[in-house]
Amino acid sequence: MQVVRRLCFGVVLVLVLSVMSGCSFSPEARKKKHLEKAQSYFDQGKYRESLIEYENAIQIDPKSSEAHFGLAQCLLKETDLPHAYQELMSAVEYDPTNWKAQLQLGNLLLLGHHNPEARDRGQTVLKGDPGNVDAQTLIAAADAAGGNLTQAIAEAQTALQMDPNRASSYMLMAELQERNNDPAAAEQSYQKTTSLNPTSAAALITFGSFYQRQHRWADAQKQFQAAIVAAPQDPAPRAALAKLYLDQGQKDMAERVLREASTTIADNPAGYEMLGDFYLTQGDLSKAAAEFEALHAKHPKELSVTKTYVNVLLFQNRLDDAVHLTDAILKDSPSDPDGLTYRGEILTRQGKASDAIPILESAVKSAPNSAFAHFQLGVAYAANGNLGQAQSEWQQASTLRPNMVEPQRALAMLAARKSDPTSLVQSSEQLMRLEPHSAEGYVFHSRALLLKGDKAGAEADLKKAIEVAPRDSTAFVRMGDLRASAKQYDDAAKFYSQALTLNPSSAEALAGLVGVDLVHNQLAQALQRVQAQIARVPDSSVFYVQLGQLEQRNHDPGKAEEAFEKATELDKNNAVAFMLLAETQASRGSTDQAIARYQQAIQASPKDPRPHVLLGLVYETRGDWQQAEDQYQRALQAQPDYPVAANNLSYLMLEHSGDVSVALSLAQTARRMLPNLPTTADTLGWAYYNQGAYPSAVDALKEAVSGDDKNPTYHYHLGMAYQKTNNYAMARKELESALQLDPKYAHADEIRRALSGTPAAN
């Protein structure tokens, strides 16, 4: 019996502990614990940890408005606005009286230009909480965003009546009055704002910025200096004061303010990095590099300094130094998205795009909202020949950061390359919006209009580009191109000359002037012009390429070769120079030298199919068809639809018992890409012949002969195809034409045998 009692007591004890455990760790208690931890992490600035705790709370109670609202706060800190919006929607769905969530949702709607919906949120809060000033100011802001300033001012006045001592309401009123062209009233409201909160650096900066817009420089300076006194460790007032000096053209004073900040705010990266950032915005990379090098030595563990320094090094193309710092970042944190992105960018620049792609894909996976990572992945895809995926990544980058210029520029360049006017209009308009004082967007837009046949609109765009950026040579070059296309050569020359004056290194401007000279048959003048420009810019590899091409036209291959040689010495990555040099050497029979030069061109530009094709042609002249085939295959690896490589490889396969089906497919690709060349018609026809499709062969080979009736090979192939279709009269005619064109033709014996077996015409 004692055993039974002992067992019963054990069972009771288990039950008691079980009940106690249930009381201590109920779902509500566990949710509360997660919410408390989430808030604690949030208060410490540990937003990722806070986010996880809020998600844990939501798993316990999916309808917890508090948890969804807290999660939204974390997402806002990480600038993930789309998901923050979703969480706020959930918060108000599960508790419509969560006024904070309603107001924040309204502000997000306002940010997205959904003004009526934002106003509705404010009215919803006012109905439930009539004294909520934040709701009233949201309504005023929504009215202002919708363009109804009169109504907005009236709503803002109501907010002031609700709480006459609320500084932020006066701030809103001041901004509305300024927009309504009432600076006197705005000044009074700004003064009221600062009197209610005299130690608010933000209010003083805003007031100072108002004076700055009014060009009341001394008053603005007074407000910014007061803000510095109010918040000596806050970088914002000093940044505002530096900008004020810059607006007045006092660059030295701006630099002095920021230099003081770098020592006064010694414990805040946002403070001591300002001087380096200033040098960057001024385009002074050498000073920026020196500043961030010193900061990195002083703060080696400060990631923001290290990463900015890496960016500066990349701007300077100091890849080896950037590699060293990037390795240090990834050693401490192997999954750091920025570090992975830097490594991928460096590899792409080193010509190793295929190695960069998986690294950048990891960066995007680790930070899917990083516009910069998506942009660099697009660059790597493009360098690897995958333009479709590149375009997709650039579009994603521009979606994530609509104000980021680089993806829009890349999309515009891609659209221009593809001659896609619709896409080019979209991207160029974005560039004009983002950089209204840059010529680039207007130049791209003019290109789009030209593709649409709107020359007048294109010219208007170029005039606008010259107006907003009169020191940018690009628009002058394009205007020259426009005039040259209309055969207005004198005007074209004027624009090209202006471009070359603005930018003595502009190869396009010099090429335009040379083109005008050649139109007028003034080769000597063109040569003198290029030589004179080389004297001004002696380190231009491109100018030596232009000189070499003119010497070729002047029938002086020795001087041409000398110029191309100099071009390759000046720029080891000038693949075009290497190819032209190789072509010159091959033309004088120095095939070994030509092969070496083509290999250098390949090394300089690994993804360019052209040097592979040209090298293949050299091997063909030497009778080494296996090496030629290999080069054509390499060209197609670089660009799978490159038509010249497809055509030449197809023909070699047909001549040397290759796979006829593969050869036909290659010939079809070449003909599709180059539909007007006789050689692609001949290759396609010969592929049909070898496959036994003789009627199709005749059709294609007739096009080849029609395009070039002086080529004995085309007549030979057509004659053989006619013979197979039993059209002996035409077969004899074409075969005899081949022999008449070249009695020593390489296939003369085959032709004679074919003629001996071809019945004579009746």
Q: Overview of this structure, please?
A:
- The protein has 762 residues and is mainly α.
- The protein has a domain of 67 residues: Alpha Horseshoe (Serine Threonine Protein Phosphatase 5, Tetratricopeptide repeat), CATH 1.25.40.
- Helix content is 79%, strand content 0%.
- The protein contains 45 helices and no strands.
- The longest helix has 23 residues.
- The chain starts with a helix and ends in a 6-residue tail after the last helix.
- The relative contact order is 0.02.
- The N terminus is likely disordered.
SSE blueprint and pairings:
Elements: H1 2-24, H2 27-43, H3 47-60, H4 65-77, H5 81-94, H6 99-111, H7 115-128, H8 133-145, H9 149-162, H10 167-179, H11 183-196, H12 201-213, H13 217-230, H14 235-247, H15 251-264, H16 269-272, H17 274-281, H18 285-298, H19 303-315, H20 319-332, H21 337-349, H22 353-366, H23 371-383, H24 387-400, H25 405-417, H26 421-434, H27 439-451, H28 455-468, H29 473-485, H30 489-502, H31 507-519, H32 523-536, H33 541-553, H34 557-570, H35 575-587, H36 591-604, H37 609-621, H38 625-638, H39 643-655, H40 660-673, H41 678-691, H42 694-707, H43 712-724, H44 728-741, H45 748-756
Helix pairs in contact: 2-3, 2-4, 3-4, 4-5, 5-6, 6-7, 6-8, 7-8, 8-9, 9-10, 10-11, 11-12, 12-13, 12-14, 13-14, 14-15, 17-18, 18-19, 19-20, 19-21, 20-21, 21-22, 21-23, 22-23, 23-24, 24-25, 25-26, 25-27, 26-27, 27-28, 28-29, 29-30, 29-31, 30-31, 31-32, 32-33, 33-34, 34-35, 35-36, 36-37, ...
